[in-house]
């Protein structure tokens, strides 16, 4: 029920705090605040947890893997991967990777909270009043619209396929249909 501009300003402030936080206790407090705000906004907590913690560890964890190695972050070795050339996962490297993953998870939680509690058009208007360039907002709006169009078209393609199919398709036929559908959709 808050003004979208107030939400955006608070979101930007929270992102600054999150990016400067170097202690897990601070990040835990901010994450508790995000969950409390989600509960107060009547959002299902499972939805918030699923949106954040099913994707963030995969992508950020994959990006943080090199930081765990002794060539990037020296320190006490946790696990030796190769003896010659020497390559190992270090304790400080694992700590840095986990801190980065948790920091991004908290930030994505607040971003999900913002997008789930604010309608799209008022959010774009609020961004415009906060002097975000018009070109950036146009690209953002077009991306949102075309993503919706692509998802709807893909859904219609699968519905059309199911309505024309009699019996059960083989795995090979299913893979062929998905491949041609993806090509036709983006073509």
Could you explain how this protein is built, in words?
This protein is mostly helical. Helices cover 73% and strands 5% of the residues. The chain contains eight helices and two strands. Strands 1-2 form a two-stranded antiparallel sheet. A hairpin with a 4-residue loop joins strand 1 (77-82) and strand 2 (87-90). Helix 3 (45-53) packs across helix 5 and helix 7 (134-164) packs antiparallel against helix 8 (171-186). The longest helix is centred in the C-terminal third of the chain and has 31 residues, at 134-164. It is extended. The two termini are 41 Å apart. The mean pLDDT is 89.
Features:
two-stranded antiparallel sheet; mainly alpha; 2 strands; 73% helix
Largest sheet, strands/sense/barrel: 2 strands, antiparallel
Distance between the ends: 41 Å
Helix-strand topology string: HHHHEEHHHH
Mean pLDDT: 89
**Helix-strand category:** mainly alpha
Shape: extended
Quaternary form: single chain
Q: Got a strand count?
A: 2
Number of continuous helical runs: 8
Radius of gyration: 22 Å
Q: Give the spatial strand order of the biggest sheet.
A: 1-2
| Low-confidence runs | none
